[in-house]
Amino acid sequence: LHGSRRVREIHAPDLEEWKAVLVKPGVSPWTVNHAIIAVKTCWSWGLKNDLLPANPLQKVQKLDAEGRERTFTQAEFLALLRNTDALFRQVLLFFRLTGIRPGELCRLTWSQADFDNHVLVIRKHKSRRTAKTKKPRIIHLPPAAESMLRWRLLKLGHTPAARPAALNGER
Q1: What are the pLDDT digits (tens) for 49-85?
Q2: Which of 43, 62, 134, 168 is the most buried (most CB within 10 A)?
Q3: Is residue 92 within 8 Å of 80, Cβ to Cβ?
Q4: Where do the H-state alpha helices sit in the chain?
Q5: Residue 104 above 80 pLDDT?
């Protein structure tokens, strides 16, 4: 951020100045925000570990950044399916059918699958951290997605160590 300056010598205006330098044509607000988050995280860590008396960077705001501007078109998605192996095709279809996040699918356990109600119940999820109420995320299973899961259950078995997204040497 500022070469040889000590951490305690850096304040919010310094980070604002650095943020302004980063904002230039061709650099997305997301890129700038990731840099700002990285710096603020270091100061927060220092505060948490009693290395700093306060975090002067805490109030520095990120840039306004819009979310994704587009999703795959149907033709793009079909092209992707045509050019992948069978296992990855299942994963892509499951994402498309359910809206599950990649991290949620990787951490999914069989105990989270409620086949009687055709849902997945994700208790620890990305938006839980900032939600006012800590409700589980309910992901509805369309028949095709549920069939995929049931097929994986038959193939892998229902053991505590088994996860629906486990590869188990399939690649």
Answers
A1: 998 888 888 888 888 877 667 788 999 999 999 999 9
A2: 43
A3: yes
A4: 12-22, 29-48, 74-82, 86-98, 102-107, 143-156
A5: yes
